[in-house]
Amino acid sequence: MKQLKGIGVSPGIAIGKVFVLHSGESFNLPKRIVGPESISNEIARFEDALTRTRTEILGIRRKLSDQIGRESSDIFTAHLLILEDRTLIEDVIEVIKNEKVGAEYAFSTVIQRYFQAFSQINDEYLKERISDIRDVGRRLLGNLCGEEKKRLEEFQGKVIIASHDLSPSDTASLDRSKVLAFVTEIGGPTSHTAILGRSLEIPAIVGIDKIISELQDDDTLIVDGTHGVVVINPDQQTIDKFYSQENRFIQITGELDKLRELPAETLDGKRIVLAANIEFHHEVSSVISHGGEGVGLYRTEYFYMNRTTLPTEQEQYESYRKVAEAMASKTVIIRTLDLGGDKFASTLDIPHEMNPYLGWRAIRFCLTRKDIFKTQLRAILRASVHGNLKIMYPMVSSVYEVRAAREILDEAKTELLQENLAFDKNIHVGVMIEIPSAALASDVLAQEVDFFSLGTNDLIQYVLAVDRMNEKIAYLYEPTHPAIIRLIDMTVRNGHRHNIWVGSCGEMSADPLIAVLLLGLGIDEISASPVVLPKIKKVIRSIRYTEAKEIAQKALTLQTGKEIRDFLDEKLQNICKELEGE
Ligand code: PEP
Ligand code: MG
Question: Which residue ranges form the domains of the chain, and what is each CATH number?
C-alpha cells in the first residue's frame, strides 16, 4: 500500500482498478508483464510503430524541404538514422523477450539507457543529440500508445484512468460510463482538464509527481478528489475508511442538493445570481438538478474539438437552442470561441507557438478568422429567440477588440434581417475580464458593454505570471493574493459606476471562502461547475451581507495571500458547520 498526494480538482471518492493510459510524453512507464504467447505480438507492435514513425518523419521532412529548403529538414534525417539504428532495435527486442514485457516499457527502458550513455560523453555535439533521441522516442512511444485508447474503448467495466497528462480534448472524449475517476502527473488546479473532471462529475486529481512509474495495470486505487489523495493497493481497513468517507460525501451532497429551489440569498436579504459553467449542451440537466439559476459561461470551444470538420451554423444553432430552451427564461451566456492556450482543435491550423497563452487565441483568433466567428455569432443570434441568451467575448484586452467584434456582430444581424431570420435585437453583449489590462481599464470597457464576467483562472495566471497548467508552481497560484482581490474590487466598482452588472466565472469561486469574499466585494453573479453550486449556495445563505462586506473590506487591507486566506478561514469557521469533514 502506498499513498501519494496531488492537487484534488474534482470532489468525491472512487475505488477501482487502474487503467494506465500512456500519452507518449513521459518515458516513465509502468512495467507491463506479458505472457510468453504475447511476445511475438509485442515485437510486431514495436516494428509496426517503427514503420509508422518512419513514414511520419519522411512526410514531415518532405513538407519542410518543400517549404523552407533542404537544410532545415536535415534534422529529420538525423531522426531517421536513430530509428534505423540496428543496435537500438535489437536491444528493445531483447528486453521484450528476456523480461517478457510490453513493447512500450521495453522501448522506454532502452531509450533511457541511451540518454544515460549520451549524457556521460564528453562531446558537446553528441550531447546535443539527446534531444533528437528524445524527440524520436516521444513520437515512437506516441504511436505505440495511440492504441491504448482503442484498448480502453474495448475494455469491459469501469476503471480509474491514470496518465502522465490528459489534454482537454482527450478528457472530453473519455467515455463517462467507463471512467470512475482520473489522475494525472501534470496539470494545475485550473487547467481545462481539471475543469472537465468537474463537469464529468467524477473525482479527479492532477499534479501527482511520478505516479505512473508506481503503477501496474490492474492495481487497485482509491482516488479522493476532495483532498487530492491517491492510495495504491490499499488494505481492507483503508478501503473501509474511504467507503465510510464516501458515504459521508454522498450524504452531504444529498443534503445540499435539497437547497435546489432556494435562492442564493444572505440572511439579511441580499440576493445574487448563482449560475453554472458548462462545456456541453447536455450538461443543462446537471445545472438544473444542482439548482443553477442560469448558465454563466458556456465554453463553446469543445464544439470544435475531436472532429475533422468545422461545426456548421445549423449544428451550433441547434445546440445553443437546446440550452436556451432548457433554461427557459433564465440567462444563458454563450462565450464565443476561446481556442488556444491548452485547448486546440485539429481542424483549425493554429500554429505551434512559444507562448500559446499569450498568443493568437480566443477573440484574437476570431477577429482574424471572421468567417468562423461570424458563423458562430449567426448561430447564437438565431438561437436567441428561444430563450434568454447573451454573448460574451473572451480574452479582451482593450476596447479595440470590443468594437471590432461589434462590427462583425452588426454584419451578422444585418444578414439575418435580410434573410428574414428572427433574433433578439436587444441581445446583451459582455466581456470576460481576464487580462490585467481589461481589469485596469474596466472603467473604459464598462461604457462599451452590458456586463462583465471575471475570468479569474486566466486573470490570476496573467497577474501573477503563473502558468495555470504547471503543477510545479501551483503554490504560487494564489486566488487570495492582494493584487487579485484589489483588481476584482476595482472591476466591480467600475462596472457598478457605469450601471452594468459584474459576475465571476473562474474556478476560485467554487471555494466557499472565496465565494464569501466575492459576495462582500459586491459581485452580482457567481458562475461555477454545477457540482459545486449547492455548497456555494449554502455558505451564502449562512451569512449576513453586512458581515461579508466587512470581511471583504478587512481582507483588502491585509498584506499577503496567506494572511487573507487565514483571515477568511477564521471568520468562516463557525458559519457553515455542515461543510466540515467533507
Ligand atoms: C477563466 O479564465 O477564468 C475562465 C472562466 O475561462 P477559461 O477557464 O475557459 O479560460
Ligand atoms: Mg479564460
Answer: 1-237 (1.10.274.10)
